[in-house]
């Protein structure tokens, strides 16, 4: 008889802390919960490891590509075109789509066929608390392989990181920005002068907050362009959907 040792990784812990700001290259040791979600083995969206079986991402990634067999996940690497193995997807759970408000409820959960092996480069991120309330200007972080330039852009080969800050919803809903389109289940984040933002290919990735451990407080969702002055990115507010996340993960 053989004995199997199970290693339970504590959520939100990494080996290294972030060291640079504003769309700079980073490493998977700093952000070990980041994964590439791939359609037909091509990068499509980002996602975050919650535990060995479950990945949190955005529902709009699957709106036009719903065949589970065409999706794979790549974890444990900061290089988009590395030879790390593709992980098979068992099921995709998408929050109910609202035809009248298509940007609402933009989150999904991926269940893997086989559990991830936790390591220094594969770790889960923590979910926020139910009563988590962040003040405007709270420092936050975004990561991804998305476009570095908005026009004629292409995916970054290496994982990028940037520091942003939480933007007050009233400011975000100003007539010069989103004109009331940002609801209570969304967050806005960016920098006042623009130039630092999530972009195409970053969708589904985490908006992160550090309080003793790293938490995923938002999911990259939508926006008007990338990094425009006074027009920050919009993120799904994770704390608003915690009941759904916990209930799906029981399945």
Automatic annotation (TrEMBL):
Gene Ontology BP terms: proteolysis
Gene3D superfamilies assigned to the protein according to its UniProt record, in alphabetical order: Trypsin-like serine proteases
Record keyword Disulfide bond present: yes
Keywords per UniProt: Disulfide bond, Hydrolase, Protease, Serine protease
Any one GO MF annotation of this record: serine-type endopeptidase activity
Pfam families named among the record's database cross-references: Trypsin
Peptidase S1 domain: residues covered: 20-250
InterPro entries named in the record: Peptidase_S1_PA (IPR009003), Peptidase_S1_PA_chymotrypsin (IPR043504), Peptidase_S1A (IPR001314), Trypsin_dom (IPR001254), TRYPSIN_HIS (IPR018114), TRYPSIN_SER (IPR033116)
Cited PANTHER family: ACROSIN-RELATED (PTHR24252), SUPPRESSOR OF TUMORIGENICITY 14 PROTEIN HOMOLOG-RELATED (PTHR24252:SF17)
Name of this protein: Peptidase S1 domain-containing protein
Organism annotation: Vombatus ursinus (Common wombat)
Gene: TMPRSS4
